[in-house]
Amino acid sequence: MSVPGPRGMRVVTVPHADAYVDAVLPAGVVRVGPAHEPSPWLDPAYLAAHAGQVDVVHLHSGYGHLPEDEVVSWTETIRRTGVPLVTTVHQLRDPAQPSRRRHDAHLTALLATAEVVLTLTPGAADEIAERFGRTAIVVAHPSMATPVPGLGAERGLVGLALRGHGPALPDPSGMVRAALAGAVNGGGRLRVFLADGVEPPPVPAAGDTLEFAPLKAEAWPQQLQELHAAVLPEQCGTHSRDLEICRDVGTRVVAPSCGWFADQWSDVVVYDSDEEKGFDPVSLDAAVAAALTRPAPRPADRAWRDGQRAAVQDVHEQVYAQVVADRTGG
After folding, report:
1. Which residues does 255 contact at the CB level (< 8 Å), separation at least 6?
2. Cβ pair 143, 309 in contact under 8 A
3. Does residue 166 come out as left (phi exceeding 0), alpha (psi in the -120 to 50 range) or beta?
4. In what order do the strands lie in the sheet with 229-231?
5. For the purposes of burial, counting CB atoms within 10 Å of the CB of 100, is it exposed (0-12), middle (13-18) or buried (19 or more)?
6. 100-107, long-range: CB within 8 Å, 24+ apart, which pairs?
7. pLDDT tens-digit profile of 106-154?
8. At what angle do helices 68-81 and 101-113 cross, to 10 degrees?
9. pLDDT at 6
10. Residue ranges of the chain whose pLDDT lies below 70
11. d(CA 165, CA 220)
12. How far is the C-alpha of 51 from the C-alpha of 27, rounded, in Å?
């Protein structure tokens, strides 16, 4: 395999197109397609047939639907072809799955094969070391949004996004009731954002203290910017993209105690929640009310965020160059 310099390196990213992937990919790297979802590069036969066309495979997500044995087969193909694998662990607990079993099996196979493991917080890195025996490089989560000039937040307005039921949110009605109680106790009101196909959960009428609004994917950062505080409803999972958008636009975050959300950004208000006991409504009520007593944070400094993203891209460029050099003896 020929080895181009870092600026011409051919990299497969899974997923191919994604806001996070776009933010961390170094300038000059050649992103190899196709841009299909799910990625054809997750098919062992496709990988084996096209391995000579790439220098690095970087797996972020998009494999959760695969049975455990298919991921194992894929990692065996990676080893057989000799293409270096880099893996970023975004989630140590897949919120789309009803139990840990499948995701744990996926991570066991992937982390045993990856040349380099990346993750987003020190807490997640410690957990990876403890559970899987791998050292992970911690890279900051880059900026996800730029504030809209002149768009102000409504003081006391709390937001909660419902993207569907499932393991990550088994009790949307209870979540809405607790968040609403906290918003009212803090002198505010609650806006519940509903993703396409999600119906409003049955909750008692609350007058003008509760409203439902469509979640607009293309305008989601602006919808978050209009809030004083945003509630992350996850009861399992590890990191949050919404949290980073809130940091960018200057919206306070009310985050669950599970995962490493508070490690991702220390300036959050935490409520008690985990996948075994569920969320504590009293704790969520108190956390929302407490969040409204604090002023909204200032939007993240753009120069700092730009420098952070450049540093993260530099880390990725160094990792790609190193794993190729290690494989070729260069």
Report:
1. 232, 240, 243, 261, 262, 268, 269, 270, 271
2. yes
3. left
4. 210-214, 189-194, 157-162, 229-231, 252-256, 268-271
5. middle
6. 102/64, 102/67, 102/68, 103/64, 105/68, 105/71, 105/72, 106/63, 106/64, 106/66, 106/68, 106/71, 107/132
7. 999 999 999 999 999 999 999 999 999 999 999 999 999 999 999 999 9
8. 10
9. 53
10. 1-7, 165, 330
11. 20
12. 22
Name the pairing type of β-strands 273-274 and 278-279.
antiparallel
**281 neighbors 231 (Cβ within 8 angstroms):** no
Pick the closest to residue 15 from 30, 37, 44, 47 (CA basis): 37
Cβ atoms of 33 and 16 closer than 8 Å: yes
| Cα Rg, the chain, nearest whole Å | 21
In which residue are the tokens 């002149």 written?
A: 150
Structure tokens at 100: 């840990």
Q: Please state, in angstroms and rounded to a whole number, the distance separating the CA atoms of residues 273 and 277.
A: 7
